[in-house]
Structure formats: C-alpha cells, structure tokens
Amino acid sequence: MRAFFEAMFFAPKWHHRIVSFVLLPLSWVYGAGMWLRRQCVKRKSFDIPIISVGNLIVGGSGKTPFVIALASRYEDVVVISRGYGRQSRGLVQVSQKGEIRTDVTQSGDEAMLMALSLPHADVIVSENRVTAIDLAKKKGARLIVLDDGFNRVTIDKFEILLQPQTIPNHHAFPAGPFREFVSQKKVADLVVTEGKEFIREVSFEDLSEKMLLVTAISNPKRLDVYLPEGVVGKVYLEDHAYFDESVLQALLKSHGATHILCTTKDKVKMIGFKLPIAEMKLKLALKNEIFTQIDEYIKGYRYEK
C-alpha cells in the first residue's frame, strides 16, 4: 500500500490517476479544512527571529540538509524539530553546542543527523514547538530554525518553502502529496526550487564492488539517479524505520553483497553496528541570494525590536 501511494504521488501511471480522481472529494475537504485553519488562527510573536524550513508535499524535499546548511552559518542558533520516528515523547534536548545528550531512538534520525552535523548549535525535539521555543530563549538562543514548520500556523516566522523541480501530482492529500492546496505556497516569504535555487550534491565513502542498498526514507526510488556502480540489490523500509543488525547481516549474505549502502540519515541508526557500510552523503549547494534574504530578515527583525 505504501509503495502504491508513493507511486501515485511521485510517479503516477494511468491506474494511479484513476484512484487519485476517486479520492478527489476527500482532498477538497481536507484542503479546505487546512485553508480555514490558516484563516482562523492568530500568529504569535516570540520576540526572536524564527526561520521555518518546510514544504507543502509529504516526503523528502531536502529539508534536513537545508536546515544544516542554514544553521551552520550562525552563532547561538537552536534547531527545533518534531523528531519524526523517535521512540520518545515530549521535549528532548538532543544536543547542546554539539554535545550529544541522547541516542537516536529518543531523538529520531533527522534530528540526530542535524545534531551530529552542527557542532555549534543546539538541537531540540518536541511535539509542542511553543514549549521548545520558550526553552531555547531561556537558554540564550539568538536565532531559531524550525524544521518542518510550514504548518505551524500559530507561530510568527520567516517561511522558507522547499519544492522539487517537477511535481506530477498537484492534488492535496489523499489524492496527491500536498499537505495543503498548492496555492498556499503564496504565504511563504521565500519559495526555493530544486534545480534553480539549490542543487543536491552527492558523494560516497567506502564503496565496494557488491553493495546492498538499504534505506528507510520516503520515496526511496529518488535515490536511483545517484546510485554508483556495484549495487546488487535494494531493500526499502518504511520512512524513519530502525534497523536490526542481525537482519542486515542476513540480507548481506542472501544478496551476496559485501557492504551495506545507505544514506547518512540511515547511518545514524547503525552507529555501533559491526557491519561494512558504504555511505551516501547528501548536501545542498544554495544560491547566495537565499542567504541574503535570510540575513536581511534577521537584521531587520533585530533592528525593529
């Protein structure tokens, strides 16, 4: 079922479009509800510059590497995330100035990746973003980066919206991948499109001649265009799923592979595994104009206050 809907959202064929058409009434109801939600709430200011990095579609659009690229430019920055896929509840301090305070099961894979990649920042996960913002301010934050914050409509913030270069299905959920009507991108302060304002740069470590791709990301087939030679099989798990070392060892043997090939997001959930791992690293190259607009917002905000 998951694979069917991912195909319907990101690579629809004729039979997917039939199902999408049948689901359209539900999409209109859902989209209208999300639209009304935006109209009825009042945005609260927290007297601190807050930059939200989000998207309108479900699945990956480069938010995590974008947050890393952004937060690495500033001092006294706190990254706040929902912590998708974590096995904990409430507010968890993942890192403080790069010092890791918990493990990946309590933080979630994306938050741990950000914590490991940002040695001068704090990373917090919390379902309640307001509580996390209040804590960040008490700890002396001068800037907050809100991961996946576009639908946090009650928070006054600078909205950055990421979008892929092409989107074959423009319907709202469940007929399509959009969390709200596509027209809602007009509320963003900055819309950043892959292939125009940013590009993905992929590099590899410890490649071998026989590798088994194992990944737990949304829409994993998007990795195909980057895969190196030597991939003898592919294993896709549900987004944010955790890995079992013994299962991976058995998969290596059954596929005749010598190494696991995974993304950096996957690898943070394999820390401590005694397995040969080849890593697929992703970072974003961003146009300077993006940072110029963000810097203007931060300076303008602090001047007004």
Strand and helix map with partners:
Elements: H1 2-10, H2 14-22, H3 24-40, E1 50-55, H4 63-71, E2 77-81, E3 92-96, E4 99-100, H5 104-107, H6 109-117, E5 122-125, H7 129-138, E6 143-147, E7 158-163, E8 190-193, E9 198-205, E10 211-215, E11 231-236, H8 245-255, E12 259-263, H9 264-267, E13 277-286, H10 288-304
Parallel strand pairs: 1-6, 1-7, 2-5, 2-6, 7-8, 10-11, 10-12, 12-13
Antiparallel strand pairs: 3-4, 3-5, 9-13
At a glance:
The protein has 305 residues and is α/β, with parallel strands linked by helices. The chain has helices at residues 2-10, 14-22, 24-40, 63-71, 104-107, 109-117, 129-138, 245-255, 264-267, 288-304, and strands at 50-55, 77-81, 92-96, 99-100, 122-125, 143-147, 158-163, 190-193, 198-205, 211-215, 231-236, 259-263, 277-286.
Task: Walk me through this protein's architecture.
The strands form 2 sheets. An 8-stranded mixed beta sheet has the order 4-3-5-2-6-1-7-8, with helices on both faces. With 305 residues, the protein is of the alpha/beta class. Helix 4 (63-71) packs parallel to helix 6. It has 2 domains: 36-198 and 285-304, Rossmann fold (3-Layer(aba) Sandwich), CATH 3.40.50; 200-282, 3-Layer(aba) Sandwich (Rossmann fold), CATH 3.40.50. The protein has helices at residues 2-10, 14-22, 24-40, 63-71, 104-107, 109-117, 129-138, 245-255, 264-267, 288-304, and strands at 50-55, 77-81, 92-96, 99-100, 122-125, 143-147, 158-163, 190-193, 198-205, 211-215, 231-236, 259-263, 277-286. The termini are far apart.
